[in-house]
Design brief:
166 residues; single chain; 2 domains; Alpha-Beta Plaits
Length: 166
């Protein structure tokens, strides 16, 4: 059973941040549960390894769907018009291509925006704890919901690293 309270430590240096993350990992917590909040990028440290995102593939799928929708829109609109053209299309394929291209780009752009909002957690925003000292250069490391069995052990490890916030 885990408590609703989290436990965090404020680290003054990135090396201490790495020690705090390693302490949480050694306590048996998965990396996906560990929260690291910093005012500057810390990409050269192990804890900042980027997770693979599927954004490029999703954007390509959005572009393909937009292009198919654009082509269907132009071709079905031409077939739906009751104009006698002697078997010729109402518009040339070059004209169809313009609409298809524009809707392809619209599909890619809209998919990019939606994927960005979801992966940046701007749509489904869970309220992570924050400390004003983070904006002054400190790094906050911890877990949002600490298991009761590990809470004391985590607090002991964090005391040697920095200031504890609960």
């Amino acid at each position: 059973m885990s408590s609703a309270r989290g436990i965090f430590v404020l680290c003054s240096e990135p090396d201490r941040t790495e020690r705090a993350v390693n302490a949480l990992l050694s306590a048996g917590l998965p990396m996906s549960d560990i929260i690291v909040i910093s005012s500057e990028p810390l990409e050269r440290y192990r804890f900042a390894e980027l997770k693979k995102v599927r954004m490029p593939w999703l954007v390509v799928c959005g572009a393909v769907l937009g292009g198919m929708g654009g082509f269907l829109l132009t071709s079905l609109t031409q077939k739906g018009l009751a104009i006698r053209t002697g078997g010729m299309p109402v518009l040339t394929l070059w004209t169809d291509g313009i609409v298809t291209y524009e809707l392809t780009m619209l599909g890619a752009i809209l998919t990019t925006i939606v994927v960005f909002l979801v992966t940046a957690r701007l749509v489904f925003r869970n309220h992570l704890p924050y400390d004003p000292q983070v904006s002054q250069g400190k790094v906050m490391v911890g877990i949002a919901s600490a298991p009761d069995a590990l809470r004391d052990k985590i607090a002991e490890m964090f005391k040697a690293i920095g200031e504890i916030r609960e």
